[in-house]
Amino acid sequence: MKEIRDTGLIQDEPLIFERGSKGRRGYSLPGWDVEKVDPDRFIPPHLLRGELEGFPQVSEIDVVRHFTRLSQWNYGVDSGLYPLGSCTMKYNPKVNEEAARMPGFSLPHPYQPETLSQGILRLMHELERSLAEIAGMDHVTLQPAAGAHGELTGMMMVKACLQARGDKRTKVLVPDTAHGTNCSTSTVASFQMVGLTSNERGVISPGRVAEKMDEDVAAIMVTNPNTLGLFEENLAEIAEIVHRKGGFVYCDGANLNALMGIVKLGDLGVDVVHINLHKTFSTPHGGGGPGAGPVAIKKELAPYLPVPVIEKSDGMYRFNYERPHSIGKVRAFYGNFGILLRAYAYILTMGPEGLRRASEMAVLNANYLMHGLKGAYHLPYDRPCMHECIFTDRLQEKSHVSTLDIAKRLIDYGFHPPTIYFPLVVKGALMMEPTETESKENIDRFIQTMIQIAREAEEQPDLLRQAPQRVKVRRLDEVLAARKPKLKWTNRG
Ligand SMILES: Cc1ncc(COP(=O)(O)O)c(C=O)c1O
User: Ligand 1 mean position to 182 CA, how many Å?
Assistant: First the structure.
């Protein structure tokens, strides 16, 4: 294997506002061949555009290079391995983008009549059926715009169902290995969150659930595979305990990319599950959306589905708004159709065998990565993982090197860092998810780089503490950047 060098991409350049010089133009137009007129004579003064103070005067190539280089600072899954655990930055096949750009899909207005939108409605209906089949559930709503939004929608349906039964339950059990959004969702849905501690295998014990489960518990919210990248092996037994006391089992199915085609969550006793299309079905994501977090439910919850529900009768697809028990609308119109379309294209191009193979490869790649890094980094749960694996900085502590330093050093080698300090149950966590699309060579290169960084931590720890060096901006004050973002250029600096 070739030696790994830190080359990075040094792209230091002034802002566009700081470039150019007076009179420089980005265009050249032919001379006037009509009489020159004074716009003041024809256009009301308040509609006339004035000079913009400080507007850059630059040539075409200045502009092209500037924006091309800006686009290169933006590390994406199309640039290289993006091992962000929990976020699942998997490759978005370009054929899905092609489908999404087809005029029949991209041009219709949401108010277009149903009779003229039959293809779109059919696509959404078939996507609902496919997701229901994959999750082993009865019905699906496509409306929620993100995973967390799906969670809230699911818990609102649980609440509506309990209210209809006249059952005033107030608590929701949330294990420490659940995704952070599960805690927020239970609270936003006006339940009191009750924590559950995972066992030494990193999963929930039925015994601990039984201890906390009573007739005031509305539901348990379980992330499966959980945020340690481990399969909740006792879920079926836990579901029985919860059901026996009249509660619901909510599964955060955002990590379905490890299970699709292999395990049907509905078969494990799950009553409601949300699916992150952007994590499992290869639709683009980032910056909080636009995404899609469809929710799949068992038939008991069907009366509470958000409206409209897509139905088929007499060979026609229709939106049904006449559903008196519905929790109402959770999203303008019908959800993020462009994202739904990409997921549908992915499911059709993969087929049942392809989806299963994708899950198998995601799990295989994560286990390969885990074995490759064993010894170089501390592995808190030394057992086969699902689609992601978790290490810590414990072995590097003696050199006073932290998880943050390791992550920053990866940038010098041209890799996006993994998720760090999450999940919270693991101190100094480095959470890595290679996804199914990475080749063995890519993963080998990442492993070799991580091992080299572990060696540097022992021999030249300052290299890590000062990383990243080969970038335009180095370590940011992230709190300041979040609290006081500079969103506008001013010449006052
Ligand atoms: C397990 C899990 N649950 C929920 C979410 C929240 O999804 P979203 O970011 O789409 O709201 C995520 C996001 O990555 C996740 O990994």
Answer: 9
